[in-house]
Amino acid sequence: MKNIKNRMLLKLYFLASISILLFTSCSNDDSAGSSGKLEVTGISRSVVDDPLVEGDRKVDVPTDIINAGNYYIIRGSGFATLKSISFNGLESYFNPTMVTDNAIVVLVDSKTPYYNEMDEMKIVTNLGTLNYKVAIRPPSPNIKGFPVNSNPGDIITITGEYFLRPVVNFGDIQVEPISSTLTEIVVKVPEGSYLKNLSVTNVSGTTVAPQVIGSEIYDDAFTNIWGWQSLWDGTNEFDAAYAKDVYQGTKCVQWKAGEWDGYVIGINNWSYHDTGKFKAVRFWVKGEKAGKVKFFANGDTEKNIVIVDVRTSWTYIEVPYSVLGNPNELSQIGYQEFGGFGGNVIYLDDIGLVLK
Fold first, then answer.
1. C-alpha dihedral, 230 to 356 to 17 to 169, nearest 10°
2. CATH number at 216-355
3. Cβ–Cβ < 8 Å for 139, 69
C-alpha cells in the first residue's frame, strides 16, 4: 500500500502546483482588467492523487464534477472583479491573489450542500452574475475513529463523515459493509488485517487512516500493547477515560500534571518491544495552557529526548526511533511536564506506533 503522505510535503506540492497553474493563467490574461465578457470555459481539479495508487499524482485535471473540500481552477473570462463564488448556494473562500481575469483558484467549502441540490456554481463580478451548471459532490471521506487494535472477526464501527456509498479496505482486502450511514460504517474485520491501513472510498475519493491495525497503545482505553503505568507524583489527578474533549473516538487521557511531574507507560508485548516492525512513536497532545512536554523512552529522561511544544489545540507528534537513539527494543515511553510555570493539564490521545 502507498505510504501515508507527510502533511507538510503535501502542502509544498500543492503550493508549487498552484503557483505553476496561476502563472500559466496569468500569461494568458489579455488585460489587467476585465475582458468584458463573463463566461466559464472549463474547470480543472488542481491536484488528483489516489492514496492507494503509487505514482498517480496529476495536476490541473479537467473535470465536470466538483468535490467539496478540494481546490479547483475555474477558467474563462471576466473574473478580474470577482466579488463572490458559491456552490449550491454556499459561498467559498477565495484568495484575491489567486484570481486573474481568466482564472479563479478556489477551495470549495467542505460544508457545501450536495444532496438533492441544484448543482450550480454562481460567480458574481462587477460585470454581473453567472450561474453555471456543474455536478456538486461531497468531500472525500473523513475518518474520525475506529477500534485500531481490532482482531479478525470483530464487528467494528467506523465513524466519520461523507460515507456516501462507501467501500472499505484493510490494506488491499476489500470488505462489504454490514450497514452504513453518512457518518457510520459497520464492518467485519477480515483475516490478514494485522498491520494494514484501513481506508474508506466514497463517490469522491479515498481516505486512508494513518493508524495501522494493531499499532495502538491507547485508543479510548489502554490496549493489549499497554502493560502498566506510573505517575511520578501519585497525587496528580489522572483520568484515562476523559470524554469532554477528544481527538479520536470518544475518550482520551487527561493528566493534571504538577510542575516537572512525569507519566510513564510500560509496553507489554515483545512483538512491540521489537523495533524491527515500527519506526516511530506517535500521539496527539494538547494542554489547558500552551507549554511544553518532554518525551522520553526506556526510562532515560536525559538523553535522546524530545521537547514537544504543547498548544491549546490538538497537535500531532511523531517521534522517530532514530531520535530516541535507535533502541533495540522499546520497553516504555514517558512524558514530563516541562512548561516551567507550575504545571499544566495535559491531554493525550491516539497513542501508538508507526509502521516502517
1. -90
2. 2.60.120.430
3. yes
Handedness of CA 33, 39, 41, 45 (dihedral sign): positive
Cα–Cα distance measured from residue 34 to residue 67, given in angstroms and rounded to the nearest whole number: 28
Give residue-wise pLDDT tens across range 92-112: 999 999 999 999 999 999 999
| Residue ranges of the chain with per-residue pLDDT less than 70 | 1-35, 52, 271
Of 58, 26, 66, 20, give the one whose Cα is nearest residue 42.
Answer: 66
Q: Rounded to two decimals, what is the model's pTM?
A: 0.78
Distance of alpha carbon 184 from alpha carbon 182, whole angstroms: 6
Q: Can you list the positions of beta strands (E) in 113-271?
A: 120-125, 128-133, 135-137, 142-145, 155-161, 167-170, 173-175, 179-180, 184-188, 197-201, 206-212, 216-218, 226-231, 237-242, 252-258, 262-267
Which CATH number is 7-137's, of 3.40.50.80, 3.40.50.880, 3.40.50.720, 2.60.40.10?
2.60.40.10
Indicate the CATH number of 142-210 among 2.30.29.170, 1.10.357.10, 2.60.40.10, 3.90.1300.10: 2.60.40.10
Alpha carbons 317 and 354: distance in angstroms, whole number? 11
Cα of 87 vs its chain's centroid, Å? 24
Question: For residues 163 and 216, what is the distance between their CA atoms, to the nearest angstrom?
Answer: 24
pLDDT tens for residues 256-311?
999 999 999 999 877 677 788 899 999 999 999 999 999 999 999 999 999 999 99
Q: With contact defined as beta carbons under 8 Å apart, do 205 and 66 qualify?
A: no
Domain boundaries along the sequence of the chain: 7-137, 142-210, 216-355
Domain 142-210 in the same topology as domain 7-137: yes
